[in-house]
Write a sequence for this structure.
């Protein structure tokens, strides 16, 4: 989660720099346009030549002006998501502190709510979460993490008849290992 927060801060800073560059470029283009208008009004640029210089600048100004609110809204969205991440971090710490006091059923319900899929194989566990913030770039794919064991994990015996002792319904067996779907048995 700390890595996520650092990435969020970095992404916000990058977009803010991009916004400042766009604003400076828009100001530069508008100064050029004003200069051309002054020269035209002083009859230093003929009427037929004026549009040849002015129109490309006007088009560039329109494009930049359209991009600025998009970048600003992205920055605002990232900042709101970052604030939500602070709350998420607090809630995650609270959950971590309380986890030992939950019974098995409560733990199962929490895992069911936050995961879409858990894939187990001989030397790794892949967890696909139901939600990951948009600008988080995990190592595997969106919403999925990969845990590799440095030593052999505890012995894992594939479930018999599609059930595990924890009540989790298993999906199909794949090359990567057994997939535990978000389908739980009654």
């Amino acid at each position: 989660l700390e890595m996520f927060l650092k990435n969020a801060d970095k992404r916000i800073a990058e977009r803010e720099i991009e916004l400042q560059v766009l604003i400076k470029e828009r100001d530069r283009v508008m100064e050029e346009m004003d200069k051309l208008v002054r020269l035209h009004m002083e009859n230093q640029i003929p009427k037929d030549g004026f549009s040849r210089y002015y129109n490309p600048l006007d088009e560039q100004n329109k494009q930049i002006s359209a991009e600025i609110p998009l970048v600003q809204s992205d920055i605002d969205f990232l900042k709101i998501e970052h604030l939500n991440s602070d709350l998420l971090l607090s809630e995650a710490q609270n959950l971590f502190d309380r986890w030992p006091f939950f019974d098995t059923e409560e733990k199962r319900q929490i895992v069911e709510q936050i995961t879409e899929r858990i894939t187990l194989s001989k030397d790794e566990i892949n967890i696909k979460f139901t939600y990951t913030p948009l600008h988080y770039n995990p190592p595997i794919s969106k919403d999925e993490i990969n845990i590799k064991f440095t030593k052999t994990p505890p012995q894992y015996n594939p479930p018999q008849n599609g059930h595990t002792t924890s009540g989790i319904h298993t999906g199909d067996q794949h090359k990567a290992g057994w997939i535990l779907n978000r389908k739980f048995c009654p």
